[in-house]
Amino acid sequence: MSAVTRRKFYLIVLLLSLFFILEIAYLTTRLLRENLYLFSLSAYNAKKVDSSLTTGCSPPNKKQGYLISYSPSNNEEWLCGINNADYIFEYINNEGLLAYDSIFLSKDPYKPSPISSTKKISIDDIPSFAFSNSLNQIYSKNQKATYIFVTMNYNAFSNFIYDKGYYTHFKNTRTDIDAIDYKPILISNIIIQYTDNYKGIANLYESGHGKGILFSGERAIDIEWEKAGSSPIKIKDTNGNDITLLEGKTWWIILNKNCYLTYN
Question: What are phi and psi of 250, to 5 degrees?
Answer without folding.
Answer: -120, 125
